[in-house]
Amino acid sequence: MRVLASITMAIMLAAGTTPTRSHQAASGWDYPFECCSSADCARIDAGAVRESRSGFVVTIAPGRHPMWPKERRRPLILEIPYQKARQSPDGLWHLCINDAGELLCFFSPGGDS
After folding, report:
1. 43 near 30, Cβ under 8 Å?
2. What is this structure's pTM?
3. Tens-digit pLDDT profile for residues 35-45
4. CA–CA separation, 75 vs 10, rounded Å?
5. DSSP state of 43
6. Theoretical Cys-Cys bridge with 113: which of 48, 59, 67, 82, CB 3.0 to 4.6 Å?
7. Inter-residue contact 34 to 86 (CB < 8 Å)
8. Backbone phi, then psi, for 13, in 5-degree steps?
């Protein structure tokens, strides 16, 4: 198994590529690969999250997330069902969205409900 990993790494380096890896939250844990492309995830303020009967309502003001810059002018409002929430490893709120504002991953301090 170790030999196979070494061979794979050698092939990737020879081809000029590096292993794909997600980026880290400020507190040091890695966002899952399926959630980000090195910029899609960020910690959000607790005040941006409101709990509803069926999940969470997240409101991101322009400029308060790397993927929702000030140029957007309108807030992004996402309704996130409980079953899409993941446990936050650092006990803080984190949101991963693409540049269109579509949900990729959401991390809540309480995790799944």
Report:
1. no
2. 0.77
3. 987 779 999 99
4. 46
5. E
6. 82
7. no
8. -65, -40
